[in-house]
């Protein structure tokens, strides 16, 4: 038997049920993974509230991202064996004790990759690397503004931009979050909950503005940042954690010779799987070399998923919340 959080009524966290299920049977091309840890991502909340663009058939087990140990290998699978440590980003299935994973979506973990870190790795680091290095073609010496810098993708973006040789300005909603971003390597930080984002950027860049804006926040911050962008700057549209999708005056792009660049790592992974696989292996090596390391806000037992969602809703999270079957 396995245990999992089951969603049979996507009306919110209170409708989830922690219950026993039959151990899933491995099909062709699949791995059965004993989950050791899973992390929370913003889509996990949207999907159980029926607000996400992907609506899985009911009932389903939520949990987009997890890590664990291969228990069983399905027919036609090469390159994996029972006992291998893997991480996966599958959209659903992670908030439980076992999951079926298409072998093509499993990332082999190098020795020494902690399960809690691996569970918080794929989504944030793949998104941030694809955004900064592929879509923005970030160059050493450029200045990157990271909005929502204390969140999961934000902390990953700080680390990746610094590894690429960029100057990083972190923007977050409190002094505590700003301090944490500085500890992670940001060169400067702006508390946009208190200070004017535009005035602070003008001071920190001598009026030039940031070359790249990493924006997972949306809302009113997007226009403030875009109005401050440097000549030939690139504004990365990563997400809308604030809730509102902004309407930007396109004349600003004309006046600054600037680009609005969409970032959709999930679609990139589907359309360009070989490039995505190469990127993920490179990121795993960066982890092994100590260049990047997921920032974990807290680690809770898997059975405490409602408490984890409550923590996410508090807006006090720095990094990622992880649920563990090892506690």
TrEMBL record:
Q: Name one GO molecular function term.
A: oxidoreductase activity
Q: What is its EC number?
A: 1.-.-.-
| Domain annotation Enoyl reductase (ER): ranges | 12-323
Q: Which UniProt keywords apply?
A: Oxidoreductase
InterPro entries per the UniProt record, alphabetical: ADH-like_C, ADH-like_N, ER, GroES-like_sf, NAD(P)-bd_dom_sf, Quin_OxRdtase/zeta-crystal_CS, Zn-ADH-like_protein
Identify the Pfam families for this entry. ADH_N, ADH_zinc_N
Official protein name in the record:
NADPH:quinone oxidoreductase family protein
Q: What is the lineage of its organism?
A: Bacteria, Pseudomonadati, Pseudomonadota, Betaproteobacteria, Burkholderiales
């Amino acid at each position: 038997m396995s245990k999992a959080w089951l969603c049979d009524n996507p009306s919110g966290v209170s409708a989830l049920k922690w219950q026993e299920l039959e151990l899933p049977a491995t099909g062709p091309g699949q791995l059965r993974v004993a989950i050791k840890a899973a992390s929370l991502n913003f889509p996990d909340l949207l999907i159980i509230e029926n607000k996400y663009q992907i609506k899985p058939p009911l009932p389903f087990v939520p949990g987009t991202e997890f890590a664990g140990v291969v228990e069983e290998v399905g027919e036609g699978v090469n390159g994996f064996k029972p006992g291998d440590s893997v991480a996966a980003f599958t959209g659903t299935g992670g908030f439980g004790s076992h999951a079926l994973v298409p072998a093509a979506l499993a990332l082999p973990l190098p020795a020494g990759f902690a399960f809690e870190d691996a569970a918080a790795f794929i989504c944030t680091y793949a998104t941030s690397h694809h955004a900064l290095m592929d879509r923005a073609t970030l160059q050493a010496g450029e200045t990157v503004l990271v909005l929502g810098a204390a969140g999961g993708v934000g902390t990953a973006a700080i680390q990746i931009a610094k590894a690429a040789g960029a100057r990083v300005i972190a923007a977050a909603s409190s002094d505590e979050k700003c301090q944490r971003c500085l500890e992670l390597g940001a060169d400067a930080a702006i508390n946009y909950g208190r200070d004017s984002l535009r005035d602070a950027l003008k001071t920190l860049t001598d009026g030039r503005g940031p070359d790249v804006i990493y924006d997972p926040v949306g809302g009113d911050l997007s226009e403030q940042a875009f109005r401050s962008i440097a000549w030939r700057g690139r504004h990365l549209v990563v997400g809308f954690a604030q809730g509102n999708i902004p309407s930007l005056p396109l004349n600003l792009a004309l006046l600054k010779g600037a680009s609005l660049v969409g970032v959709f790592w999930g679609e990139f992974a589907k359309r360009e799987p070989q490039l995505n696989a190469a990127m993920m292996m490179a990121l795993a090596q960066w982890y092994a070399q100590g260049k990047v390391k997921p920032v974990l806000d807290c680690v809770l037992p898997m059975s405490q998923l409602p408490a984890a969602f409550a923590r996410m809703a508090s807006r006090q999270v720095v990094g990622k919340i992880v649920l563990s079957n090892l506690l």
